[in-house]
Amino acid sequence: MKRLLSIEFSKLWGNRAARVLILAYFILLSFIALLASVNFKIIGIDFRLADQGIFNFPYIWHFNTWIAAFLKFFLAIVIVSMMANEYTYGTLKQNLIDGLSKKEFIFSKFITVVVFAAFSAIFMFFLTLILGYSFSSYTETSIVFTDIVYIFAYFLKLVAFFSFCLFAGVLVKRSAFALGFVLVWWIAEGIIFLVLRWKIIKDGAITDNIMQFFPLDAMANLIKEPFTRFETVRALEMANGTVSIKDYGVHWYSVLIVIIWTLIFILTSYRIVKKRDL
């Protein structure tokens, strides 16, 4: 495994664009901390986000991981390019000539994906602890680690999405087209949702139950939007008499669906490489 990782990271670090994107990704993750200093002025009243409870434990685990997940597209570009460059520059064929098996080749890509996701999750863990202990009104240990499961959900979400990008890179072989494939898939899931919701089933709950089995929707279900859980939003809902009941938990079945899709993407990628004439 160490040898395979060494091969992959030497390729990535030798690519200037990949280096820039990786550094940009982690720098942008750090910018979540800037939200603490953001001030808004509504109806002549100034207020700072950090004073409104978004950095309170345990809510901060949910909020930070949901926000951070949007930045995964930076590493997605790296993952897709990592695979596409193997075909463009002939390094895949050279690796196979040098004795690397096709199974080891795909495995090396997958463990690189896992390492990226793990570093991101560890980074978010420490960033969240720092922000939480700096601004949270609740710092009791039992409260601090209540929702730490969101870090695991964040890690799994990244592994699954990067595996999907890896699959796209293997299937299409060109970075731009592979990213286009990911975009088209996302649009297709959206269209399927609209057709089911408004034309075929016409029931929101049943549509959601069906859509949870689609890959991107399954990944999104790991960490649902946190804003309606925000204290100020809940207070406004109560004032208007429109309190919504929503399940924000990370459920075992959502985890299982995402793991299955991850395995499908990796095994399908291996099958394509195995059968393809390189």
How many individual helices?
13
The global form is globular
**Structural class given helices, strands, pairing?**
mainly alpha
Instruction: Give the end-to-end Cα distance, rounded to a whole number of Å.
Output: 24 Å
**Widest β-sheet, arrangement of strands:** 1-2
SSE order: HHEEHHHHHHHHHHH
| Count of folded domains | 1
Weakly predicted, low-confidence segments: none
Q: What is the percentage of strand-forming residues?
A: under 5%
The radius of gyration is 21 Å
What integer is the average pLDDT? 84
List how many beta strands DSSP finds: 2
Give the helix level as a range of percent. over 70%
Largest β sheet strand count, sense and barrel closure = 2 strands, antiparallel
In words, what does this structure look like?
By secondary structure, this protein is mostly helical. The chain has one domain (2-39, 46-275). 72% of the residues lie in helices and 3% in strands. The chain contains 13 helices and two strands, in the order ααββααααααααααα. Strands 1-2 form a two-stranded antiparallel sheet. Strand 1 (39-42) and strand 2 (45-48) form a beta hairpin. The longest helix is centred in the middle third of the chain and has 34 residues, at 102-135. It is globular, with a radius of gyration of 21 Å.
